[in-house]
Amino acid sequence: MALQPVFKKGYIDYLKNHINPSLYMGDHFEYDRSQVVPLYGVPKPEGLLEQLDSKPDGDLQTAIAIYEAFPNLTPLFAQQDDLWVYLTHADLFKYVKERWPLQNETDDEKKRRFIENHWFHNPTNFLRTTFAGLWWNVFMTVDENREDKYELTKVMYNCGQDWRIMRFGELSLVRNKESMTGVLEFLAENPEIVKNNFDARGQFISRYFNILGGTKQLSALNRDQFKAILYNLKDRILNIQTVEDIHHKEISL
Known about the structure:
Helix content is 52%, strand content 5%. The protein has helices at residues 9-17, 48-51, 59-69, 75-78, 82-89, 93-99, 108-119, 132-139, 151-158, 161-167, 177-189, 191-195, 198-212, 223-238, 244-247; strands at 3-7, 36-43. A two-stranded antiparallel ribbon has the order 1-2. It starts with a strand and ends in a 6-residue tail after the last helix.
């Protein structure tokens, strides 16, 4: 089986420093084949593009497909951009164009920022980086001991993109398997929290742990301790109906 190609580091820097929006408007991105090297130990998956769903509600399907295509990446390598930038510009270019339509942006400067955020490493929020964020979402939630190993992954995606990426995703907890598991198990056991008013309730959960992290080393807690914290907060969470309920009340520990 052929090995997965990736771009050389220097070429990624070159592409990012010379973004030309017109090169991203066609059906294919023309890149320098001499700047491609094999990723040793990582087989190139067959038919990956056809497994992806570029509709916004297809992110879960796409995330699982990306993870299953590259299940043995190390977390250290997955934080780098070698593979992800190659995929956005080469093998999966068609998907990125459909999922993040460039023509929606109005001028070249906005287009360049849009390309930088979606075709390269997102500088402000790593989980918004196309493919890298999707892989990490699954890596941190997959549980081989469950009847459905993607049960918690589905819970996360059911919470919505804003919470997954912008609220909970901004916390360092998303790189902590125990915290992710504890929070998502609590939400799986209490679906009424997610079903109604979760935009506000999810913000409360994120803010609470953000404040708690200033007084307690959260990385030392296990999943059951995270769940216990949330069960103690359950009545407060259920009483939140709107975002204003958070803005107008101080979040106390």
